[in-house]
């Protein structure tokens, strides 16, 4: 790929981050042979299954990596690192054979039988789930197993280096610990030669020259000697993070706001080892509908499976792209807006294939997808009015509104019609509540009824929208927002919606006349 230095001036956060990585490589030592390959990393704790945050971190890092390649013309790779040598701390709630797992607490995830019975270990099972998850979205990455790296010697030199700087590393971490943990802390966690448990014990001796850790089993009082290299131990996680950065030469890694202090500590350890911490990017955490931090234990979040039941993955990419350093609420109501923001950006991408457009990053430059001539919000309103239980019902209206448009010519629209039916069935229908019009609203609706009866049935959306404004202005609403609120609440049974003129054009003037006549037949509420 040819370098395009002009991309440094693009005001989009992936390119701004990519410029930082380019500056890091330019300031660093030149490789003895060939070009430096920029290394981007994402981390994964395989004691649980991949989730919506996993998607967000890998997607965002991918966008920065691609921006770097376009900007510099240099090669880059993304490594998805699984900390599968970590000890199992507690039995997850969402797995079978919990009693069996409980017998293996403290052992590395790759040394524990798979409770699902499909893989050699629990770690291998969850690693396979991670890779299937990433593959489903088409991410380009190299998978890395902590167990393989430790046992295969990839970290040996870095581990011996850490052993040489053992006390310096301890001094970085100790001030952050409570008295009890401080008394036992070492960056090294030896694997017990008899039980296989990842031990958190103080080191009696650290002898890098002999490749040896000497420690005491607190339960038996037995003294053990464990090799530093070859998978005989692993590093405590903050030290492990620094170890990876140093050993692999990681150039870029994102992390959540909750890990700011850990990033600082790991960066300090990386420097003690003689390395330079990667360029970092701190993203904000998601909130639930009430503005509370999302917690897996509380179950107050939105899962990726739930999002993809109601909207395409591109819309999830849109949600993740927008303002990653600002806290955002992640609940079902944000899905329609994310879909329509994506559709708008996809349309702009046809004429403006530039890096400021989120769709540019979602599609890695350009897309041949024609998008959708109808917004998702409009499809939801249509599904609501016709009580759609099948997308075929919506297509009867779509073909009249946009002649020549078919599921084959517009696959995104076909997918959206299916999603709209699912979203309507699960969220809109249960909350649908019609109210009777007030006297002011009744007069305005009767006026609108008269106007619509005089219109040609093929009137376009913009003409209808202008007439809606004129009708609203003729009646004593505090503002036009109240008039359009009346249309949504009285005619559609919901609090808000898209431009009503577009809905009338899609649903049809005769159908809309029927909605108004039905609404006027309801008993008037108090003015």
From TrEMBL:
Its EC number is 6.1.1.6. InterPro entries: aa-tRNA-synth_I_codon-bd_sub2 (IPR020751), aa-tRNA-synth_I_CS (IPR001412), aa_tRNA-synth_I_cd-bd_sf (IPR008925), Lys-tRNA-ligase (IPR002904), Rossmann-like_a/b/a_fold (IPR014729). Its main location: cytoplasm. GO terms for molecular function: ATP binding; lysine-tRNA ligase activity; tRNA binding. It comes from the Bacteria. Gene3D superfamilies: 1.10.10.350, HUPs. Keywords: Aminoacyl-tRNA synthetase, ATP-binding, Cytoplasm, Ligase, Nucleotide-binding, Protein biosynthesis. GO terms for cellular component: cytoplasm. ATP binds at residue 296. Coiled coil: none annotated. It is an enzyme of class 6 (ligase). One of its GO terms (biological process) is lysyl-tRNA aminoacylation. The keyword Oxidoreductase does not apply. The keyword Ligase applies. A motif ('HIGH' region) lies at residues 46-54. It is found in: Cytoplasm. Belongs to the class-I aminoacyl-tRNA synthetase family. This is Lysine--tRNA ligase.
